[in-house]
Amino acid sequence: MLVALGFAVLVLTVGMVVLFAMFGELSARVAQAGGRPRSTEVVPLEGARLGGVPDAWPGGLLAGGEAPSVLLVLSSACGSCLDIAGQLRDVPAGAGWDGMGVVVSTSHEQTGEEFVAGNGIGRFPHHVDVGGSWVTGQFGVNFSPSALVFAGGRLVAAYIFHDVAALRATVTGEMAGQGLPRQDREAV
Amino acid sequence: MNLIKAKAQTVPQEGAGRPRVARRRFLGGVGAGGLATAATVFGFASPASAHTIPYGCCHLCCPNSGHTLAACESGFHYVWQCSESGGRTCHCCEHKSPCTYGCSSIHYSVGVCTS
Q: Which of A39, A181, B36, B100 is within CB 3.0–4.6 Å of B85 for a Cys-Cys bond?
């Protein structure tokens, strides 16, 4: 009798803990989704210094010594960027985007590192950009989520996006079909 | 004679104490197990997320501070722009280090959104 009562209490306790954990997880996912459908629009980012070549690439962005061809600019202060990070996290290992790197603009190194670790960005070439000083100083970009496209180390296009697959389709399609993204051809 | 009586009375009481102690230990184990489970499930939240909430497309530590964007952008601060999926743009400003050192009159965040 006593053992049965204790077992029932144990089951109820574990059940309550699991129930609240599920509520917490659900709450976190709803907050990230924002209750709004994700836009697949990829639009040019105004104000970026097209044609610019960076003085130097941060070491974390160089994969095998090569500079990235596409740089995703995220920020630890940007809620939309959490959704982008979630999309990147869902990309299966080995099915990544060759030549893609991630810059995380942040107020403090520790906050940026927590953003990288908490969102699984460490498996991509990445750079924690304190104050956003590198990406703003080199390319005039202080906006997220955005993507910078490079050809021969030169910035040829900059986009605002909210869907990684849509961005990838836009970038790879334009670069494969035309040699340069449309935005650069218009600017040059 | 009295001693024999007293001994005879105490024996059943000692026997009844054993299940009581066992019950206490068992229920204590159940409570400790519950606490350990709760600590395991809930103990892994990052410190920053404890006081971080979304505002527009911003991810703000210590929001609703009553400060303006201009006040936030004075002194040591970090400001960044973001866009929501619906097209609204926001300025997200952190004054000092609210995500690291918690909320105070100098460690706060401000978000301002325009459509």
A: A39
